[in-house]
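Issue: copy button drops trailing tokens. Both records pasted manually instead:
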Amino acid sequence: MESFDVPCVVADNFLKLATGGQIKVLLYLLRFSERKCTEEEISANTGVSIAEVADAVLFWQNANIFMPRQNDTDDIIENTAEKKKLRKNLMPTAIEKMTKEMPDLHRLFIHVESILGTLNPSWQNLLIWIYNNLGLDYETIVTLIGYCKGNNKAKLGYVETMAQSWADDGINTLELAQKEVQRLTDLNQSSGRNISKTKKKKFDVKKYEEICVNNYEVI
């Protein structure tokens, strides 16, 4: 039976501090320390999202946990950082022009405004990035925003991180988004860590369609 070594400090100091995903990533990298592992491979074999893989590698590096061929893990961090650089802020005039040329984006702005209120340029840029670069469709984005709002987490950084995670995990349709929202809601309830003090309700995209239909104008 094959075996591999795990540093004692992991068992001594990190069983409570590290998350399950971080432990999985560490064990996988230690098991296959003789070769280079890509973030996609690690994600596929551990069940940890691609975004979480890079975070886990960074966690163990900051904790000074030795991993053979450590330089290979730098590629994981570099690749993830490169993806995050793809988001560039557009000037308001460019955003206005884009909404005129893309009716679906204009429609998305109206519906998100019905949830969050008036969108400033930072929010508009984030929604454009999620829609164009991450490939999440209109209904998926509205569902994501609705979930974040319902849990008092409708902050730019949180929404960006969650959207990236959904894109990495292939959650890019309304059906998959609603299943993920239900999973997260069940998880929060079962762990006793409900984010919202009010009862959670399934976010209904069609409801916001009806609310905004009078305000919608195809440009």
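Record 2 (pasted manually too):
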Amino acid sequence: MEISKTQKKRQARMVEELARELVSLPASILSQLPCEQEIREQIRAAQLISKLNARKRQIKYLAKCLRDIEVSPLLDFLEETRESSLRQEAISERLSRLRDRILHEEEEEEALLLVQEEFPEIDLDRLRFLAEKFRQSRNQRFSREIFRLLKIAQSHAVAAAADAASVSAGSCGREGRVDRAGRVRELDNGELDEVSDYVSDEEEQG
């Protein structure tokens, strides 16, 4: 079915918007883009142009290049990147609120209980010391240090959760093997020989 002029214009605008978004990406994300090297080079070329009109022309040329490829992987990648960025912003915002409660003397102990529950390994005395120093001096250095410690604790908690999930997945596999071995041990010698022969046949077929 032939595409209407309106659809063509809509698609052209979408590709140009995609081109502009790609040009705004930092180098750390640009290197991860699921596209050919030529597309990355055109994006970098646009990023290096300071003159507005020349930059617009380069973005239009980039959009022309994008129309010749499948852009779905790029759109999916950008969506995932935006979601990851939003998650990180939400975490930072939550830690900021927690830090502010620690600094507020009336809420300090309640906030530290929450910290201890979420991050058992963190040094609460250190947080109390920094909070007291901040209240005495109003020096933002102490506030930033509390936030830094909370971020480190958050990173460690995420890593520990990932490790625990990995260990749990591995132990499930081991339990399956132990259960099977346990059932074999319960058989008498004749049945054990039959099971062994069956397992050997399976392995040979595999």
